[in-house]
From TrEMBL:
It comes from the Archaea. One of its GO terms (molecular function) is iron ion binding. This is Xanthine dehydrogenase family protein molybdopterin-binding subunit. It holds the Pfam family MoCoBD_2. Keywords: Molybdenum, Oxidoreductase. Signal peptide: none annotated. Residues 22-126 form the Aldehyde oxidase/xanthine dehydrogenase a/b hammerhead domain.
């Protein structure tokens, strides 16, 4: 990595969004729309019930109430991938909290009061909360008409069941692999439903203009995705929908899907265009928002003793998607094609199922299925290594893929410029001092141990998504950059500005990137901010736009200076003739074209345009074959932990994360790494949405749903970026890093716990209560001996 050749790239450039600190930044709750009404939702108290009657008469009497809407007002299904969701529950409520009515009033207080007066008669119905139970033939059906639902062609619902989508992948011969294996490990792993825990609760507002245009404000990760999905579901041309960009207080996948936006849009349409605003509070975000699916991963993996090579892997992956699937339906596809991780396994058999349950719905979660898969697969790797009598690192090294030679289970060739998985693993081993046993604490009830895992990220992007950018020169030589990227806290706008300034060799402060002062009617298209794609994809469009601008500058300057365009170079804010630096034009002299002394003008304003679309990816066929990935970011994560056997508490003494990718902005890259690590460690140790036996959430808020705090930061975090290969078409070789640092911590901590006390936990989170419970089950003598020793002392 040659940092010295860049003005800005690879440098720790501070963020420019100071308005977030001054309070000038506007989030959805800050938006004031003249004449706006407030909406409040009424949710079902039952996990599954037939709606017999909704009495809104008392609610309508509350002063200020404009309307009370129910499912009868919206007699159609919504959804982009599969249309399986009601705007408001119609015939049946499908989970506790399922919205059955919406109150619209002049004030929030009036809406809240009226919502309490809506009376609903229900007939409780049998329900199912566990995905395995939901797959049984006699389970209550959430969607009896599943076979009639419109869905995208690469989804395979199973009518007459609760299976929203079944995905399968086949590679080689699983029977041959099973015959060849000397050691076979077969285990089941579970991970619970999680909340995305964004600090800003979800919200949306909408109105219908007098010309029929729908105007929307939303805290979404993808304004253009909102526009597309609304147009698709409501049969409205995209040109009649305008979505405003706002600052978004975190998303992590939880604001990448569409639901909330429908409610104010449809309410405004019912109320002659009056603006309607719906802002969820924290508890409502748990009930009406999206979550991460719950996972049940059944793995069977076999290896040879002679050389330690894995010869087959078989997986059955089951996802509880809640009462509706939509984007959650694709979890099976993603986890399927990454089923073997960074390892070269010749025989693979995967079946994955997206399963409806009577719970809130789910969607993408940061590191889309990877964290969950590594929790299972990387524990599987340690178990196999132990049974083979091999060191876990050596076992992994022996089975790693060979870039340029190996293929994914889908058949896609693994490109050499994706990076060096072996180098990543070896460097992480060095940093954690693998092979050096940790010094044990003096307290006999505490143990320390280390573990290391591989946790690459292969972003899931649709093969037909595109992104565009425009750069335009201003009279003073400054540059405006317009893109459709949604800024959700990651700092992408800063990185894009750095690219423009780098290419034009101008001061960074001369580049203005349009942030929240834009909407989908005046901004180039971008799909959405997800899948570790923002810098990678939008960066390519920006660089193409800048290159287009540079070619125009060179062409114009060559005409003025009467030289060939190839002899012009752009540096120091000027168009300069190579070898003749006295022949130069300041960029501001040509920004609006050029006027010769005789008054003759040429060209006009300089505006560059660029677009990008994935060039490597294809869809997958019914056997899971195809090219799903643009790149992979290889990563390894390692921990040294200390476990208190008496309390079950696990402390992270040292955390190491290594990723094989360069970066654009060092500050932003480290922020993603540290934030991802803390989030992943917390997912491993604390996070879980807890339900009672009737499907009610027991911890719908940050008082009881434990997210990481400053005191939970590990004592030592080491982050290192390698640059073994530069992805040739990525911006300055940089790949996505927004998710990869989340992935391996749950598996690493579980493996370290086993190495410390011999207790294998295959169900997340590894909370103190669960650790103590598993010690009592698996190692009762360990606890008893410590208690006896303490009593003797």
């Amino acid at each position: 990595m040659q940092e010295e050749k860049y003005l800005y790239i690879r440098k720790p450039i501070p963020r420019r969004d100071i308005d977030k600190l001054t309070g000038e930044a506007q989030f959805i709750a800050d938006i004031e729309i003249p004449g706006a009404l407030w909406m409040k939702l009424v949710g079902s108290p039952y996990p599954h019930a037939r709606i017999l009657e909704i009495d809104t008469s008392e609610a309508e009497k509350v002063p200020g109430v404009e309307a009370v809407l129910t499912g009868k007002d919206f007699p159609f299904k919504i959804g982009h991938h599969i249309r399986d969701r009601d705007v408001l529950a119609r015939d049946r409520a499908l989970y506790v909290g399922h919205p059955v009515a919406a109150v619209i009033a002049e004030t929030l207080e009036a809406a809240e009061k009226a919502a309490e007066l809506v009376r609903v008669k229900y007939e409780p119905l049998p329900y199912v909360l566990d995905p395995l139970e939901a797959m049984k033939p006699d389970a209550p059906l959430l969607h009896p008409n599943l076979g009639e639902y419109e869905h995208l062609p690469f989804l395979y619902p199973v009518p007459g069941t609760n299976i929203a989508h079944k995905f399968k992948l086949r590679k080689g011969s699983i029977k041959d692999g099973e015959r060849e294996a000397d050691v076979v490990v077969e285990e089941e792993y579970r991970l619970p439903m999680l909340h995305h825990s964004y600090l800003e609760p979800w919200g949306a507002a909408a109105r219908v203009r007098s010309d029929g245009t729908i105007e929307i404000w939303t805290s979404s990760q993808g304004p253009f995705a909102v526009r597309t999905q609304l147009a698709h579901s409501l049969h409205i041309p995209e040109s009649r929908i305008v979505v405003h960009y706002l600052y978004v207080g975190g998303g992590f996948g939880g604001k990448s899907d569409l639901f909330l936006e429908y409610l104010p849009v449809l309410a405004s349409m019912k109320l002659n265009g009056r603006p309607v605003k719906l802002i969820l509070n924290r508890e409502e975000s748990f009930y009406y928002g999206f979550h991460r699916a719950e996972y049940i991963l059944r793995l069977k993996t076999g290896a040879r003793k002679s050389d330690g090579k894995i010869v087959f892997h078989k997986g059955e992956y089951i996802y509880g998607t809640g009462h509706a699937a939509d984007l959650g339906s694709l979890l099976g596809n993603t986890i399927g094609w990454l089923a073997t991780g960074p390892y070269d396994i010749p025989n693979v058999w995967i079946d994955s199922y997206t399963v409806y349950t009577n719970k809130p719905t789910t969607t993408a979660f940061r590191n889309y299925t990877h964290t969950e898969l590594w929790f299972a697969f990387e524990q599987q790797m340690d178990i196999l290594a132990e049974r083979l009598g091999m060191d876990p690192v050596e076992f992994r090294l022996r089975n790693l893929i060979k870039p340029g030679a190996s293929t994914l289970p889908t058949g896609q060739q693994i490109s050499e410029d994706w990076g060096d998985p072996e180098g990543v693993l070896k460097r992480a081993a060095e940093l954690i001092e693998w092979g050096k046993e940790p010094e044990q604490p003096r307290e006999p009830w505490k143990r320390r141990a280390k573990a290391i895992v591989m946790a690459p990220k292969g972003p899931s992007m649709p093969p037909n998504i595109t992104t565009s950018a425009i750069v335009k020169m201003n009279e003073d030589g400054s540059v405006d950059l317009l893109t459709g990227v949604a800024e959700i806290g990651q700092g992408t706008l800063n990185s894009l500005a750095m690219m423009v300034a780098e290419e034009l060799q101008i001061p960074l402060e001369k580049v203005r990137v349009y942030g929240i002062d834009r909407d989908t009617s005046n901004t180039p298209y971008d799909w959405e901010t997800c899948a570790s794609r923002a810098t990678f994809a939008i960066g390519q469009a920006v660089l193409k736009a800048v290159d287009d601008l540079k070619q125009q500058i060179k062409q114009l300057a060559s005409q003025i200076l009467r030289v060939d365009p190839s002899s012009i170079e752009i540096r120091d804010g000027k168009a300069v003739v190579k070898g003749e630096p006295w022949k130069a034009l300041k960029l501001e002299e040509v920004a609006m074209g050029y006027t010769f002394p005789d008054g003759h003008a040429i060209h006009g304003q300089l505006i560059g345009r660029g677009s990008w679309v994935p060039r490597r990816t294809t869809g997958l066929d019914e056997e899971g074959r195809g090219h799903p990935l643009e790149f992979v970011t290889y990563s390894a994560q390692a921990v040294e932990i200390e476990v208190d056997i008496l309390s079950g508490r696990i402390d992270i003494l040292k955390a190491v994360a290594v990723a094989d990718t360069p970066f654009i902005n060092k500050i932003l890259a480290l922020g993603q790494a540290y934030g991802g690590a803390l989030m992943g460690i917390n997912v491993a140790l604390r996070e879980e949405i807890k339900f009672d036996e009737n499907g009610k959430i027991l911890n719908p808020g940050f008082t009881d749903y434990k997210i990481a705090r400053a005191g939970d930061i590990p004592k030592s975090i080491i982050v290192e970026f390698l640059s073994t290969k530069l992805l040739h078409d990525a911006p300055y070789g940089a790949k996505g890093i927004g998710e990869v640092f989340l992935g391996g911590w749950p598996a690493a901590i579980a493996n370290a716990l086993y190495r410390a006390i011999g207790v294998r936990i295959k169900r997340a989170p590894l909370s103190p209560e669960r650790v103590v419970e598993e010690i009592k089950k698996q190692k009762p003598d360990l606890l008893e001996n410590i208690v006896k020793k303490l009593g003797g002392e």
